[in-house]
Write a structure and sequence with these properties.
Helix content is 76%, strand content 0%. It is built from 7 helices and no strands. It is elongated, with a radius of gyration of 19 Å.
Length: 204
């Protein structure tokens, strides 16, 4: 016969599964961070290499060929990151014999992607107007807001990643010449650290 504590724990687990998306994969966070670091390395090579001092060459980004490369690279990183997260989270759901596409997962995706999509459109408008210095901080800030918004519908840990992205975005807004390195820290290093922590905490 089960103890009352066990019954309560099971009820709590069922309620959590019905209201929160719990299949986020830690490995997908690590891979998303790796994609971002590769993209940041390419961007550095196009904009700053070989002899230009870091943080003083934002005008070069205005060149159409460089801007085009940066936009394509950003789009590829976004697609790879979303695709990896989708496939690995689906796989995790199957291993746990849970449904992937549930009302909770829909609410999570909606909460995350509305701020991110609005931020993406805002950044395209800033690029069109020539305000290149605000693009890196804007991507960090809108992504951080999306993570905080989505943390209500998934594991609570994700909100700390959101806070870190917001702090980096604000710092980047004051030091626009260092946007690339802060972007690499936010989307690259922090994702790898967060993904590793999630993997060891929930996925092993």
């Amino acid at each position: 016969m089960r103890k009352p504590e066990q019954e309560l724990a099971e009820i709590k687990s069922m309620m959590e599964r019905s209201t929160r998306f719990l299949s986020l994969s830690g490995l997908s966070g690590i891979l998303a961070g790796t994609y971002a670091l590769i993209a940041a390395g390419l961007a550095y090579a196009w904009v700053y290499y070989p002899n230009l001092p870091y943080g003083t060459n934002i005008e070069l980004i205005r060149q159409e060929d460089i801007l085009g490369k940066l936009l394509v690279t950003a789009a590829v990183v976004l697609l790879f990151s979303i695709g990896t997260a989708w496939l690995m989270s689906q796989s995790k759901s199957k291993k746990k014999a849970q449904k992937f596409w549930t009302p909770a997962s829909k609410r999570f995706i909606q909460a995350l992607f509305i701020p991110v999509a609005v931020g993406g459109i805002f950044c395209l408008a800033m690029l069109a107007k020539g305000y290149l210095g605000v693009v890196a901080p804007a991507t960090l800030i809108f992504y951080g807001l999306g993570l905080l918004n989505a943390s209500t519908f998934t594991l609570n840990d994700i909100k700390y990643l959101g806070y870190c992205q917001l702090v980096l975005g604000i710092i980047s807004a004051f030091f626009t010449g260092y946007g690339l390195i802060l972007w690499a820290v936010g989307f690259g290093v922090l994702h790898i650290i967060y993904g590793a922590m999630m993997y060891y905490k929930y996925d092993r």
